[in-house]
């Protein structure tokens, strides 16, 4: 199957990981209005563009014989799994931070294990997004652009969250690993063509992950997030999506 491929979208998303955390004006408390707005854009995309696609894709998933007897909404189950997986990983990281504060002696080896667990999970996440990006290039330029913008802003939110958790470890190692995972996932598209059913399930998993990863950055009280900025980003992108 011929597939018209452009390298620019994946380079643009990789660029976010390279330089996103250097945007110092986005750091600090109260939470930057730009980060809150970026989170709103990502969530609006998932609910108004990605989930409607999943609803259509549900027809393909329901044709799987092994799944018909299991549940009638496999696509949304995958979205729930994506949300639950990233919630669980976030709890592991947060609990380790609390332990650090309580204990006088630190355990660097254990901390390193948590770091790689966290980064490893986001590697899988980035690789899946990279593959979806490749698949999007087969469709319309408009769909590719909408997805790329939403994911670029989502990556900025993720970068600042990961940097807050892991500090220098993320800047020195983590972001490079995430770039490699993104490009690798995109490159897999050249050699592996997943069935439409599997692509739909991957999209569902990523959609659940996006929702959790945005909200976990917005909700903590100490962040002093700007609700109005989140709603502004979500509202404006929703208007754009509904008008197309």
Name the assembly state: single chain
Low-confidence stretches: 104-109
Structural class: mainly alpha
User: Mean pLDDT across all residues, rounded?
Assistant: 83
Count of runs of 4 or more consecutive helical residues: 9
The major pleated sheet works out as:
none
N-end to C-end Cα span: 28 Å
Please give the number of β-strands.
0
| Dominant shape | globular
Overall domain count: 1
Radius of gyration: 18 Å
Beta-strand percentage range? under 5%
Helix content bin? over 70%
List the secondary-structure elements in sequence, H or E. Answer: HHHHHHHHH
Descriptive account of the structure:
This is ZIP Zinc transporter. Keywords: Membrane, Transmembrane, Transmembrane helix. The chain has about 240 residues and is an all-alpha fold. The chain has one domain (about 35-244). Helix content is about 80%, strand content about 0%. It is built from nine helices and no strands. Helix 2 (about 35-60) packs across helix 6 (about 140-165), helix 4 (about 75-100) packs antiparallel against helix 5 and helix 4 (about 75-100) packs parallel to helix 8 (about 195-220). The longest helix has 29 residues, at about 35-60. The protein is globular, with a radius of gyration of 18 Å. The model is unreliable at about 105-110 (pLDDT under 50).
Topology of helices and strands:
Elements: H1 8-19, H2 33-61, H3 65-68, H4 74-102, H5 108-136, H6 141-166, H7 168-191, H8 196-218, H9 227-243
